[in-house]
Design goal:
- By secondary structure, the chain is α/β, with parallel strands linked by helices.
- α4 packs parallel to α5.
- The structure holds NADP nicotinamide-adenine-dinucleotide phosphate.
- The site of NADP nicotinamide-adenine-dinucleotide phosphate has 28 residues, from α1 and α4.
- NADP nicotinamide-adenine-dinucleotide phosphate binds next to α1 and α4.
Length: 233
């Protein structure tokens, strides 16, 4: 597998979702830059992901603010309780034109509530809060909320599910879809503007309930869509 030209930074790659995504992308040949609050943990995480992904995988690790410098696409996979502080810490090093892919779910455990419930976020969603916190020239796309880290992180498991992608600019969503489509079995669906993220984020809470009931790692599939979802017109 030839590495793609564009590296991807994953903030929170030491956690289940970030680690799973980074591993799948590295497996597909994408160079990964791991970001962590702790530089040593970033390096350890990078080594672990590289080992799991495949021989020759390009995975490096830096403290969060340094990590974002190395990629045009930055994935944010941290708990809602840490989202604002994390983004404030990236303000000085994120630059115009970068894309932030926000996977944050404002689950109620952030304030001691149940994981089957979401919190109301003043801006409408965690993704819209992210857009408010990044520098002006950074665009936010919301994605990956309904993909279970357990399934994504297990390279022996075949994936077969949709990723609902929200964002205010179609070209940004297509860029994210092109990236996610490097992972076999994931199909991106344009789920509308960034404001629609409030609906998608709440689906995670719904799926956590379903998973508990059926002892599984459920995803979503939108039916009756055309074959080509990302045509340029
Ligand atoms: N797990 C899933 O299946 C899944 C699926 C869809 C969406 N999500 C969402 O994706 C995000 C990440 O999920 P996760 O389960 O991987 O989360 P997690 O394990 O709780 O956290 C991920 C990483 O974020 C960093 N972190 C932890 N607490 C933090 C804080 N207070 N401030 C800043 N950084 C902090 C840690 O990395 P460092 O210590 O290295 O900085 C941690 O390893 C969450 O918003 C979650 O709701 C998860």
């Amino acid at each position: 597998v030839a590495p793609t030209a564009e590296p991807v930074c994953v903030i929170g790659a030491s956690g289940p979702l970030g680690s799973a995504l980074a591993t799948r992308l590295a497996h597909a040949g994408v160079a990964i830059v791991v970001g962590s609050r702790d530089e040593e943990r970033a390096r350890e995480t990078a080594a672990r992901i590289a080992e799991t992904a495949r021989e020759g995988a390009q995975v490096t690790g830096f403290a969060n603010a340094d990590a974002v410098v190395h990629a045009e696409v930055v994935v944010l996979a941290v708990p809602f309780a840490g989202q604002a502080a994390t983004l404030k810490g990236l303000r000085d090093t994120m630059r115009d034109g970068q894309l932030l892919v926000d996977a944050t779910v404002p689950l109620a455990p952030a304030v001691g509530g149940r994981p089957t419930r979401v919190l109301g976020v003043w801006q409408g969603s965690a993704a819209q809060q992210a857009q408010e916190l990044v520098p002006g020239g950074v665009h936010v796309v919301s994605a990956l909320h309904t993909v279970s880290a357990a399934t994504l992180g297990d390279l022996t498991q075949a994936l077969d599910e949709d990723v609902l992608v929200c964002g205010d600019r179609r070209e940004d969503k297509r860029r994210v879809a092109d990236l996610i489509h490097l992972i076999p079995g994931l199909r991106c669906v344009d789920a509308g503007k960034l404001e629609a993220a409030r609906i998608v984020e709440s689906l995670t809470a719904l799926l956590i309930g379903v998973n508990g009931r059926y002892k599984t790692h459920a995803g979503v599939r939108v039916t009756n869509l055309p074959d080509e979802l990302w045509a340029s017109t």
